[in-house]
Structure formats: C-alpha cells, structure tokens
Amino acid sequence: MEQRQHTLHAKKASADGPPAISVYGLRVARGDRALLDDISFAAPRGAIVGLLGPSGCGKTTLLRSVVGIQACAAGHVQVLGHPAGAAALETRVGYVTQAPSVYTDLTVLENLRYFSAALGLRGWRRENAVVRVVKEVDLADWADQPVGRLSGGQYSRVSLAVALLGSPELLVMDEPTVGLDPLIRQELWAVFRRLANEGTTLLVSSHVMDEADRCDRLLLMRDGRLLASCERSELLAHTGCASVEGAFMRLVRPEGAGAPAGSDSVPVRLDSVPDPTDSVPTPSHPERAPETAYEPADESIPAPAPPSSVPPPSQPLFAQPLFDGDLLPDPHASFFATECRGP
C-alpha cells in the first residue's frame, strides 16, 4: 500500500533526549481491514497526552503498538529512543490495560509483591517499591484487603500501582477512569497530574471528551485515523468551538470545509498557532525515496546488490533506526487532517 506523505516538523534531539513517543506512518491491519491507517504523531516528555475517540476507533490498538505488543503492517514506533517493545524498555514503560490485570483473591500487598518479583526486584528493593506505590496511589488503608472486595476506584488504583512498580518514564493507560464516579475520577486525575509534574509521560485513552480539559496535549481519533494532534486551546481556536466535544464533531463533520469526504488525510502544521519552542527554522522530515528495482540494463551484467541499509524480509519491522541522524518529529508541533480544517 502506498504511504501517504506527511508534513511533520523536525528538530534536533534536546539534552533531555528524544520525544517520549514518535510514531510515523503506522498501519495495523486485520485481514483486508485497516485497524490503524497511516498514524503519525510525537509526544513530549513529562506531559499528559490524551487519546480521545469513540469506542472501536482503534485507541487500544494504538496503545498496544506503543507498548510493543501489537503486530504492525507498516510504519515505525519509537519509545524513549528505542524501538517499541525493546528489552531496554522493560521497566521504563508501564501499561494499565482496560481489563483489570491483578488477582482478586490476593491482597493489595500480595499482588504488588508478586508483580515486583516478576520485575526482578528482590529484598529491600522490592519492599521499597511496594511501599512507594501504595503511597503514590493512596492505598495504605486497603493494603491488607483482598482486591476482590475493593470498590471499582480502588481496583483501578491497584492496577495503576502495579504499573508504577518499575518507576516507568512512560505510563500507558487504556481508559483507566471509564465507569468510575466523578469523585474517584477526580482523585485518579490528581494522581496522574502529580506523576506528570514529577517527569513521567502519560498516554491516557478515553471516550469521555470532558477529560480533555485535564490533558496537556490531545490526539483525536476516528475509524482508525488520526484527526488531530494539538493542545486543547489550539483545537478550540482551529474549530471555533467552545468545547472539545463540539470541536470533535466539527472535525468529523466539517460542513463542506476542506477536502471532500473519503479523500486522503495529509497532516499539516497549524500555522496560525506559532510554536514557542521553534527558535530557528527546522527542516521537515525528508521524504523517503521510492524503492528501486534492481534490474540489470544488460543481461550480461549482473544486477547490483541492494544497499545494506535495506533489511531483508526476515528481520523485524523495527530493526532499522527510525529517523536519520538527529532529526526527530517535533512533539510540540500540531496538525489536523486536511479534511478537518476549521471554518
């Protein structure tokens, strides 16, 4: 399938390292059906990035791709400077699944000790990690209770505590607050904000649009495609709407603005909102050259061998470096699909 071209602004890696997440041209398919179609974005470090969209739009598939447990048909995913799923990310990335992943017949402490041992923590290091996460998610009063007897909000806190055992730099959460009452949601978001203030990057999915107000950046999805990557204020300014829900509906139904329905989506920079991080002009990501068929001009002359940088089919998809040199997607750049331009 021919990849559509993107316009992603690039900048040199800062002293803090590459973006927390860099995704380019990601495509995930099941049979003939595309679950994710040409997804590209970058997420800055130390921010809460909200992945918003209706149920079934591909949010979980995208999160699984970031964690490195999803087979991808095309594209690249880089996490904290490594290919997604690399062994070096084992303790640097935490993942909270949509379905609870703790044992209901064990107490909170027993669950945490079990999973910390699975991470290779032993002795005082394991106990320190357990005590730390119990305090971080405010579970001290229920530490000796079986998880099966806890409320929904406490249950979610246990799953979050397990993901925090390795002190991850990136925390990926699949709808962690869905189905909880407003008070519990507010308490969990307070925990998320504290973690972000301490330097952890959070990628949080939800289909509740009002949770966008709690995020630093937004990724809006529909039907396996990325509609926008921006800050909340940029989204509202771009669409002329007063709420994120209204802005999302404007992007989905642009009322004749932009390209006709069904046309290719080409992410573009939101030029009307200047990026304060851009002190000097930065080059766009270079377009990839088309593949060349290695056919000899003369049958008596053998065909040249393919360049060594082209991996053989037997190598994994992410075996090659994601970007050339030190050029990286700008995690602060914003874009909207061309058919989602403002009024």
- Could you name the ranges where pLDDT drops below 50 across 5 or more consecutive residues? 1-15, 256-327
Helix content: 10-25%
> What share of residues are in beta strands?
15-25%
Helix and strand content put the structural class at alpha/beta
Largest sheet: 8 strands, mixed
Oligomer: single chain
Q: What count of helical segments does DSSP give?
A: 7
**Strand element count:** 14
Mean pLDDT: 76
Net shape? globular
Output the radius of gyration: 22 Å
The neighbouring-strand order within the major sheet is 7-8-9-4-10-11-14-12
Report how far the terminal alpha carbons are from each other.
32 Å
N to C succession of SSEs: EEEEHEEEHHHEHEEEHHEEE
Description:
It contains seven helices and 14 strands. By secondary structure, it is an alpha/beta fold. The two termini are 32 Å apart. The N terminus is likely disordered.
Q: Concise description?
A:
With 343 residues, the protein is an alpha/beta fold.
Provide the fold topology.
Blueprint: E1 10-12, E2 21-30, E3 33-43, E4 48-52, H1 59-67, E5 74-79, E6 82-83, E7 93-96, H2 108-118, H3 123-136, H4 152-163, E8 170-174, H5 182-197, E9 201-206, E10 217-222, E11 225-230, H6 232-239, H7 244-252, E12 268-269, E13 327-329, E14 335-336
Parallel strand pairs: 4-9, 4-10, 7-8, 8-9
Antiparallel strand pairs: 1-13, 2-3, 2-5, 5-6, 10-11, 11-14, 12-14
Helix pairs in contact: 2-3, 6-7
